Amino acid sequence: MARLATSVFVSALIRRISDKGGAAVVGRKGNGEAGEVFIAIWQSTERAYVFFEPVSAYATESAGEMVGGRAFRRVPEVMDPIQLSARVEREAKFDTDFWLVEIEHCDQPITRFVTVID
Q1: Is the pLDDT of residue 83 over 90?
Q2: Distance of alpha carbon 88 from alpha carbon 115, whole angstroms
Q3: pLDDT exceeds 80 at position 66
Q4: What's the pTM?
Q5: 28-37, 43-52, 63-72, 97-106: lowest mean pLDDT where?
Q6: Closest alpha carbon to 99 in 1, 15, 14, 20
Q7: Which residues make Cβ contacts (< 8 Å) with residue 42, sequence separation at least 6?
Q8: Using H for helix, E for strand and C for coil, what is the string for 3-22?
């Protein structure tokens, strides 16, 4: 599958999460055509975010099977809001065109919406 424009991918992701009763918003808007996407999922019980970073299509053998032509990898440690802000600031120093999708509530696993590579 060809890689979708970032704005289309993000819009579809937010709509799919919303359709399943979840809540997701654009936390940071980047380049609509080719910006990378990061995903932060708020875990209210832990009061922390689970963070997913983009994985290059070249780094995975399942490039043709990725949802929207994109894949993600979970960052092992959870982040509190201050750590998430710091991570976003660090990313912005390298790439000003990235997007951040923040998911506050969703009973479905993220793997239902995006491709996650271990």
Answers
A1: yes
A2: 22
A3: no
A4: 0.89
A5: 63-72
A6: 14
A7: 48, 49, 102, 103, 104, 105
A8: CCCHHHHHHHHHHHHHHCCC
